[in-house]
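Thread: Newbie trying to understand structure tokens

Hi all, I'm a second-year student working on a class project, and my supervisor (Dr. K.) asked me to get a predicted structure for one chain before our next meeting. I've only ever worked with sequences, so writing a 3D structure as a token string is new to me. If someone could post the tokens and maybe explain what I'm looking at, I'd be very grateful. Here's the chain:
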Amino acid sequence: MSEEQKRKVPRIVILGGGFGGVYTALQLEKSLGRKKDFEIVLVNKENYFIYQPMLAEVVGGSVGLIDTVSSIRKLLPKTRLCVRDIASIDTEKKVVYLAPQFTHTEYELEYDHLVLALGNVTDFRGIPGLHEHAMPFKNLADAILIRNRIIDVIEFAASVESEELIESLLTFVIGGGGFSGVEVAAELNDFARKLAKNYPEIDEKKIRVILVHSKDHLMERELSESLSKYSEKLLKKRGVELRFGQHLTSATPYEAIIDKKERIKTKTVISTVPSSPNPLIETLPLEQEHGKIRTDRFMKVRWKEDIWALGDCAAIPSEDGKGMCPPTAQFAMREGKTLAKNLVSVIRKKGHKTPFHFKCIGMLGALGHHSAVAELFGRFKFSGFFAWLMWRAIYWMKLPGFDRKIKVAVSWMLDTIIPIESVQLKMTPSQGIIRLHFEKDEIIFKEGEIGDYFYIVVDGEISVLKEKDGREECIATLGAGEFFGEMALLNENKRGATIKCTTAVDVLALRKSDFGALISNFEELRSSFEMTSKKRKDAIQGNGEDEKKNKIA
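---
Reply by user tm_fold:
Sure, no problem. This is what the structure looks like when written as tokens:
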């Protein structure tokens, strides 16, 4: 007899381990008590819950790398945790299919009640270059990568002499002036400037942190105009450049593109916008509004008796009926508690359900360097050091788990007496093939540079330029499906030509070591590359007009 056949009590499956999912499970466990009249299963990609409001402090090193995370198993001892990716959901069969892991077989998880708490994701669709070159700021891995990048560029800037390169390395561009954008900009600015003091070779004045925001004020949806103005004034005083009414429209390995015209030389682009509901939501046959699942005031999905939704992926009517509940942590926590109570009432057939109602208590935003802004109950406004103490006290009290509170308190205490450390934690292995985006007129590589990548054109067109008699001459053009860069790799020498983008271009790039492994294992492929390389070399050297017509790289 299978596990599913043995099951006799209703199973509640919660998808997502953010604030909505975890707080729903916490309340369900509390309601369950010593009874065993229902089963709780939570599915999440990680086995930890991350306390999002403190994530920016990981970038600046104010808290330890894992001090913002809590073990879900420890938080939810009565909940069965499945650490898996979700492949698909069949609402007719009432089955969630979990992606294969260590096998090639999907895992089928049946449910009696399904709770969708899938949150949202960073969405760069339709914005060229951001997916390839902008760093999102959404989870712990993102915070660690941003911290590593800051350390990387400052270390490198201290060892090079090119003023142009140093300027590019020490320029940081952040897109989005909401809470996430402001907090990461403030922490990055503090961290980079503190770090630079350890390097006599670096002039701190050369560090540029540029925050690009499409609106007229920072955090305009969350804070009053007076606190927004205070935040702007403070960030400017600390060296952050604010660009209002502008958009981060593209990125390349060398530049951030503002409103499709201004180009800022930089090696670090961070985008906190835009975000959209989890792509799984789009595949479900459920009534949706602006990409979110529509629910009633009880958080039950419309026209479904066994599916519930909350958090960023749900369109929950606000108390006044004029809009939707905002996608914030304080709402998701209360939504989880109310949803769990309603779900238990349905399972135990009590007949009474509670409509969700909650008024925002207030908003808090950290501005780095012992400063913050706070607005409580729409009436009381605080800024500066006192607001920062309030910010830390409130979020510290809301941290789940006593041991986590102790660890964070110790980190904060040590932060006041021990200098920050510039130690990196590099966890992501280098990719074999990476996708890159370049804008029109950008140089992919120059004649005479070291050969480090092999390229394949995915979209767009490039020109092959060769310097002759003191001027550059176009000797070939390449388009989609064609390749370049193999000559320097095959012959272990420097680039024989300059590659310039005729249009916006997307390419696939293969590292030198991976290219070497590829051709060493496929002799026919190596011979083909060597034949093409010889033709191109002859054309570059001017051996015959016919050869010049060959497409070269």
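A couple of things are worth pointing out once you decode it. The longest strand covers residues 471-478. The chain has a mean pLDDT of 87. Feel free to ask follow-ups in this thread.
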